[in-house]
Amino acid sequence: MKITTILNFMFFFPFTFADLNIGFYSSTCPRAEAIVSDVVQRHFNMDNSIVGAMLRMHFHDCFVRGCDASILIDPTSTRTSEKLAGPNRSVRGYEIIDEAKAILEKTCPLTVSCADIIALATRDAVSLAGGIRYSVPTGRKDGLLSDPSLVNLPGPSLSVQNALQFFTAKGLTLQDMVTLLGAHTVGFAHCSLFQERLSLVHGKADPTMDPKLRATLVQICDNGSKKSDPRVFLDQNTSFLFDNEFYMEVMKKRGVLHLDQQLALDPLTKDMVEEFAANGWMFQEKFANAMVKLGNIGVVLGGKDGDVRRNCRAFNFPL
User: Fold this and answer.
1) Average pLDDT over all residues of the chain
2) Structural domains of the chain sorted by starting position, each given as residue range(s) with its CATH number in brackets
């Protein structure tokens, strides 16, 4: 069953999750989550593509040194940052975090971390697009290092087995990987990330891609100028709705990225894809759980390794 309406209730987890807590700011900044939610709502009303942007930002942050908001740091003339790494150059949505942080600093200074804002904003964006509104454990601190040389993310051309190594290294399972890649139901990809799938090899087209999809993508990508890199929907059907359509599409050989399509073909993941395609509610539940696990990777809880930034783009005590 495909979910086509907003799941407007909270999906609750146990009160604590590896030292993070549901309602961490209930006494120190009671309106923290409401403030973030209001900001996300305003931006979503203007541009509903921010859902994919927030999911990508959260993933790219957590998969480097952990969920510490290191991706938000701006480079300076004397300091580099993760923003300069190739995979992060197209990350967007920073203005959403900036706006929420500015309001929170006026309301309760040096209290709500930028890392928590990312996690909360991502949850709120998913909910607005029709996804489950899950509870987000909070209490993260912001990291004190942002190094582009540490950015090593799973690429779209990997096999299932090779991609899985990235996820297991972060404590995530095969099911977590298949579930989290379902976020591509609201995502985009630039043509350069899948161009090789559109090229003829020995006079034959890629047999793992639906010919009609290939023709559509060739038209979009070939019409782009040499200086541009057009982007396309990863879910060509319900592109702005957070549902299980992504899995239905890859089962029809309509996966845009190589890795996405392989999920439906590899014996390791084929059954999971079929389950999620058949049961949208199951996908939503598993996705909520996987997002909480993702948000717990390498969190900084205090001490000398983290603090709460005044400005999400800069360290409090720059070197």
Assistant:
1) 92
2) 7-152+294-307 (1.10.520.10), 160-287 (1.10.420.10)
